Amino acid sequence: MSRVVLLSFLFLFIAVKVYGQASEAERFRLKTVVIDPGHGGKDTGAIGRHHKEKDIVLDIALKVRDYLRKYLPELNVIMTREEDVFVPLDERARIANENDADLFVSIHANSIRNPRIYGAETFVLGLHRSEENLEVAKKENSVIVLEDDYKAKYEGFDPDLTESYIIFELMQNVYLDESISFASAVQNQFKNRVGRYDRGVKQAGFLVLRETSMPGVLIEVGFISNRNEERFMASESGKVYLASAIFRAIRDYKESFDARNSNLLVQNNNEAIQNNEIQYRIQIATSMKPIPKNEGPYKHFDDVWEYQEGNYYKYTTGLAYSYEEIEKLLPQVKAVVPDCFIVGFRNGERVIP
């Protein structure tokens, strides 16, 4: 065999190996973000003295989109609406799920009877911890009554009935820690870069977040019921400040997400040379406290394995020693937990993703 042929084979081998590593790394990068301007069309959202929520949040969302496409061109940015149209809640979630989004960002403006209340807050999916949080969820979920046959579509859920929200107590948000991480980044930007009053990261039962299968938040950029905040949110400079804050939070979250998973992947590839025993499992729940053996994932799966990471308790099912093998089990688990995903462990510590 000639030297030229040997060199050709060597070049082909290296190219295939590098491409394979690049493809594996790409799998664990944050690639797609869905921006969801709340309300629209016949659903005005909250109404202030001079402005409507649906118009303010659309303008802010479009600016976020433009910033992302300009400064993060590698990121796929998808909008649930780009004009004044009505989009049902389940349709917003469908857009995110069908595009395999890595992050869902729903943008809203708040309203309350007390006009002196002001500030920005970001919600993740969960059970409300106060009546105030419950009222915010009721307000945002009330849009479903504008949809045809909403009782059948949302399985009898009544947005005005407190008892309906018990379903969120029984849910274990698989992406709770990632959602809280991004929500904290948003609030940090609002407080430190825009000078908004920080009302914190909170949990409440939002249907649009329940239906999505990725980390997601619902941002309340301010209170339209407060005269000064309405004026700020409706101004061009206010929209620029708020949109740039959300953009920077997405940028920072993406950088952290990509770096963390890249480090795990490099560590995995290096250690795999010495030890190929990676255990692949499917994560099905995350909780801030241990889940009793007869609740949550234990009711749906016989094989449940718990591990603790930081302040969170996480639960997986299935066990395989190759990614291809665990992938075969994924559709079966997704039928029960749509937002489940694959994780890898070595010696009891998570290494993928």
TrEMBL record:
Entry EC number(s): 3.5.1.28
Molecular function terms, GO-annotated: N-acetylmuramoyl-L-alanine amidase activity
Domain of life, source organism: Bacteria
Key word GTP-binding present: no
Catalytic activity: Hydrolyzes the link between N-acetylmuramoyl residues and L-amino acid residues in certain cell-wall glycopeptides
Keyword Oxidoreductase recorded: no
MurNAc-LAA domain span: 93-251
Gene Ontology CC entries for this record: outer membrane-bounded periplasmic space
GO BP terms in the entry: peptidoglycan catabolic process
InterPro entries on file: MurNAc-LAA_cat, N-acetylmuramoyl_amidase_3
UniProt keyword terms in alphabetical order: Hydrolase
Record protein name field: N-acetylmuramoyl-L-alanine amidase
Protein species of origin: Thermophagus xiamenensis
